[in-house]
Write a structure and sequence with these properties.
Blueprint lengths: L5 E4 L3 H9 L4 E3 L30 E10 L6 H10 L5 H4 L1 H7 L3 E7 L8 E2 L4 E5 L4 E4 L4 E3 L2 E4 L3 H7 L15 E9 L8 E6 L7 E4 L5 E5 L9 E8 L5 H10 L2 E3 L2 H4 L6 H12 L7
Parallel strand pairs: 1-2, 1-9, 2-5, 3-11, 9-15
Antiparallel strand pairs: 3-4, 6-7, 7-8, 10-13, 10-14, 11-12, 12-13
Helix pairs in contact: 1-8
């Protein structure tokens, strides 16, 4: 092997996909190694599915039926829903993406296999990054050196890890997000061949997803009273014009961000992330 060592921060799905394209990379994952019984596909919460299959991964295709308040989406209903979740401007600034989100009938995909990491260090919690010395410092005091760094973690977290002296233009930028609380009601419906997603303009839950296994996931913006819920963070992110310049500034230091949270781009989908990583990996001299 020739080329420079690549370090990936984040051992989630995006980090695993990145390593598929850069097989000699090292993943730093803050969590403990999973037990054998836990080596399964990650649980999908809410309306979480792929819009397109990921190259090289076995996927299952299914139908997705999308409605607003139980009916086919209209421009008025879309605007009302987007206003409810604080994203009304997207109906004007991103009409194409919004129309795709509320398409009544579409295809969805889910993976059928677990991506096994080739080279990963667990319990490796990154606390700071020195782009000049090209090393990351871990919570246990150890240092990992790199030539190029891939980040799959949320952009504001990465910003706070990098030496503030080199990011003076971005140190006061606020990144807005809102946690999502998901309540799962099991065996609510009979198992079905399709997934149904209903966006709601009124009522406590703003989205209801009927999964194919018969369960129902209700999503809330606040902690639902009297219900056990799964808290997802960052959850819903709100785009900022400072994200792209910050990502570009990171790339100048050989720190490359991939994924919707890593780039703080609410429109980015996993298949687009996969394509971007594949293109970037093609520029590396890793296999000569």
């Amino acid at each position: 092997m020739s080329g420079e060592p690549i370090v990936i921060i984040g051992g989630g799905m995006t980090g695993m996909i990145a390593q598929q394209h850069v097989p000699y990379s090292l993943i730093l994952d803050w969590g403990p190694p999973p037990a054998l019984a836990e080596r399964a596909l990650p649980k999908q919460w809410g309306a979480n599915y792929w819009w397109k299959p990921i190259a090289g991964m076995a996927c299952e295709e299914f139908d997705v039926i999308t409605t607003i308040d139980g009916a086919v989406a209209t421009p008025e209903a879309i605007h009302a829903y987007k206003t409810r979740v604080g994203k009304a401007q997207e109906t004007y600034t991103r009409p194409g993406m919004v129309a795709s989100q509320f398409e009544n009938r579409a295809k969805g995909y889910t993976p059928l296999e677990f991506l096994e990491p080739k080279n990963i260090r667990y319990k490796s919690h990154v606390v700071s990054i020195d782009p000049f010395r090209r090393h990351v410092c871990l919570r246990d005091g150890s240092v990992v050196r790199y030539e190029k760094l891939i980040s799959t973690i949320p952009l504001p977290a990465l910003r706070d890890m990098v030496d503030a002296a080199v990011l003076t233009s971005f140190d006061t930028v606020r990144f807005q997000s809102a946690p999502i609380y998901v309540v799962e009601k099991k065996d609510t419906f009979r198992p079905r061949a399709s997934m149904s997603v209903d966006y709601r303009t009124t009522g406590p839950a703003y989205r209801a997803t009927a999964h194919r296994d018969g369960s129902l996931h209700l999503e809330y913006s606040d902690t639902p009273r009297g219900e056990m819920s799964k808290k997802l963070i960052p959850g819903r992110i709100y785009d900022t014009p400072y994200a792209r310049p910050l990502v570009a500034e990171m790339a100048l230091m050989d720190i490359y961000c991939f994924g919707r949270y890593a780039r703080w781009d609410s429109d980015e989908l996993l298949h687009q992330t996969d394509e971007d990583i594949q293109i970037w990996a093609g520029t590396l001299n890793m296999y000569s």
